[in-house]
Specification:
Layout: H1 28-48
Length: 52
């Protein structure tokens, strides 16, 4: 191999390697509950500050 010639290979992902995307087997109920808690907190903030 010379200094000018380089071989480019595509990276191959090993089985089970995560890419950083959303998990499919996560705690869905916890996310659902936390979403509703956020909705309630924002509603309380809006009504306390008389923004409605």
């Amino acid at each position: 191999m010379t200094a000018n010639a380089a071989t480019v290979t595509a990276p191959v992902a090993a089985p089970g390697v995560r890419t950083g995307g959303p998990r499919e087997d996560g705690p869905d109920i916890l996310e659902h509950i936390m979403g509703w808690v956020l909705v309630v907190v924002v509603a309380m903030l809006v009504t306390r500050l008389r923004m409605l």
